[in-house]
Amino acid sequence: MINPARRVAEPKLSIVFATRNRLRLLEETIAAVRGECAGISYEIVVVDGLSSDGSSEFLAAQPDVAHILEERLEGCCRAFDKGFRAARGELVCWINDDVALSPGCLARAVAYMDDPANAGVGIGALPLSTSAERQDVYVINCTGQPPVPYADMGVIRGEALRSVGYLTTAFRRFGWDPDLSLKVWAGGWRVGIVPGARVTHFFFDDDMRRTHEHLRDDDTHLLDARWEARMADLARQAWSPELVAGALPLLPPWNKAQVLAWLDRPGRAAAALNALDDPARALETLYNDALRLHREGDPATARKLYRVVERRADLSPGLCGWAHFKHGESLSGAAARREFARALAHNPGIAKARLRLAPDPLRVVFGGAELPGYTPLDFDLGDDELWGYYFDGRKAEAIAIVGAPALLDLPVQSVLANALRFLTPGSRLLVGPSGAGEGELHAAAPQDILRHARNYRGEFAHWRDALLVGWLLAKAPAGLNEREIEWPWVLERAAALPGRGRLLDVGSYATPLPGDLSALGFSTTALDINPPALPDPSGVEVVVGDIRGTLFDADSFDVITCVSTLEHIGVGLRYGETASDPDGDARAMDEIFRLLRPGGVAFVTVPCGAGDVLPVNKCYDSARLGALFAKFETASAEFRMAEPDGGWRAATAEEAGAAHWWLSPWYALGLFVLKKAP
User: How far is the C-alpha of 390 from the C-alpha of 375, rounded, in Å?
Assistant: First the structure.
């Protein structure tokens, strides 16, 4: 509802503001406006948000005030929009009801807008006190990245106001004033600064201000959504030499640093950060803005911000290094290499910079080791995305993983799959213990890894698991075969037994051992979870079953042999096992104990080592073996270690239990004669 006041027919200037229950401030503001408008044809338009403190009655009695009494509260933005639409002036000034105007402020604003040199100015911004605490510092604020100046309060041409469609009323309290300036910029007008004018804002703290703070985030998100994609174009339009000269002294420190950075004046921008309370945090914000611009396809603007960060190594040498690195990524050739070298000078931990500087053919080493001719790298080898990030299209002639027992805790299959992705044909993957030289590492060619993996693919649920076997076999010494130790060892001891009797071979599958044992005179039964395919089944009873729970009677066998089988029992995703059974090997030994007659003998061989390599098989140390064989008497225990030449040597239990299958030619071997008490 608008009070039909005795309004000037065609005022030069309309002064618009909103109020609610601020009678004292309202009276002071109207009096100040009247004093400022001496000699100017003016009108005052006040939007009254249902005041109950006498403000409405006061406004209704003012002959020079167009009093708009709202029917309901709809927020600050809609209130000003109502005032703007009601204003009839050639120029429309908007202020708040808790401000003081510098002497001659409005006259200066009118003169500025009437100056023919400023015919293209749509808004004349009035410098505003920066905060309630600093009412002696006057600023022009900016919005967005790159920053564009806007008017918190100012004077707008009525023509420009109508051409941009007044205010965007989707805003509630915040954001509408920078949005208005951006619409004016986008409409082909300029936003200028009224020289010599000042507005002191008292930021009067009342329930209205406090209760609307929750709207700030929503309004900010709306402003970003409307303008983020256009800020670069608007900034190029806005920052003329004239505006730079007039605005820089009035910009808040953060906006000043942003503008100087965007104008590619990195030295001055870096120095401007010193005026901030937390320059290090501002530096990080600049860097993150640069990353965003780089990611969004604007490397030229990103480089401007990187150059500012690069000049403040005193605040953060690490961030300075990263700025040089990202700067280098936006360049090519010698210029890029210079930035990568500077990155490492400030931040030696940027591994990708080392990789970018590494010569061809590329050789890299992981694990903190140093190998001549190799570039050291360090990242989570189990992370597929990091491999792609670091290598970034390059491939290596050699990848070495040295001194990394922590590999036992990694998804080794992922390590292998990624290493193969980034190795060239004819290259090598090398692994070895700490302190090993290049010639002492265990090497395998990618084609050999893949060949073995294809051969074993049918045993595994996943291709990457077959790759693991492919690697272990490819790096093994030529001719190495633990069965050449195990089978003769079993046959020799079985042949030395005083009697023959009934014998159970566990895990027979396709081995010749059951036939050889039968030939020694034993009544042999071959047991496997899969149908055994013995090369010589004559004289052998074949049974398909699970050693964790058989149908044989207790005390059924005089001798039980179990050659390299326990380590597979309960391991999921191999040999058709879909679920893991961590105690499967212990359950198997319990069943062997049950099936063995009192006084009977079991010949058992297992791989030994420092940790399991799953889903290939488990590896055992002394502690695990002790628990596994707890019900038996261990009549003898022998251990073998694989040699680089493919042979085997005798070893201690401690050596065997510490062997690392990844970092050794092969796992160690344990051979045990177990007896069940009579």
Answer: 12
pLDDT at 433: 81
Scored b (16 or more CB within 10 A) or e, 616-655 reads bbbbbbbebbeebbeebeeeebbbbbbeeeeebeebebee
Q: What is the pLDDT of residue 588?
A: 98
- Together in a domain, 174 and 105: yes
What single string gives the DSSP state of each residue in 609-677?
-SS-BTTTB--B-HHHHHHHTTTSEEEEEEEEEE-TTS-EEE--HHHHHH--GGGSSS-EEEEEEEE--
Percent with pLDDT over 70 in the chain = 96
For residues 91 and 201, membership in a common domain is answered with yes
Mean of the pLDDT values across residues 113-121? 97
What's the number of CA atoms in the CB half-sphere (13 Å) around residue 387? 18
Per the structure block, which two tokens stand in for 633?
């008497």
pTM: 0.71
Write out the two tokens for 588. 């198997």
pLDDT tens digits, 559-585? 999 999 999 999 998 877 778 999 999
Q: Tell me how far apart the alpha carbons of residues 611 and 540 are, in angstroms, rounded to a whole number.
A: 36
Q: What is the pLDDT of residues 648-665, one digit of tens each?
A: 999 999 999 999 888 889
Query: Of the residues 429, 450, 475, which one is the last residue of a structural domain?
Result: 475
How confident is the model at residue 210, as a pLDDT? 55
Compute CA distances 326 → 184, 225, 364, 395, whole Å: 35, 27, 22, 21
398: tokens are 């050699």
Which residue range forms the structural domain that includes residue 422? Answer: 360-475
Amino acid at 190: R
- Radius of gyration, alpha carbons of the chain: 41
Confidence of residue 372 (pLDDT cuts 50, 70, 90): very high
CB-CB contact of 508 with 649 (8 Å): no
Q: Is residue 19 within 8 Å of residue 26, measured between CB atoms? A: yes
Contact 330, 299 (CB under 8 A): yes
Give yes or no for a contact between 83 and 145, defined as CB atoms under 8 angstroms apart.
Answer: no
Instruction: Provide the pLDDT for residue 193.
Output: 98
* Count: domains in the chain: 4
CB distance 155 to 194 below 8 Å? yes
Asked if pLDDT for residue 176 goes beyond 90, the answer is yes
Among 475, 496, 516, give the residue marking a domain's end.
475
Angle ∠(394,400,405) on CA atoms, nearest 5: 130
Q: Give the number of residues written for the chain.
A: 678
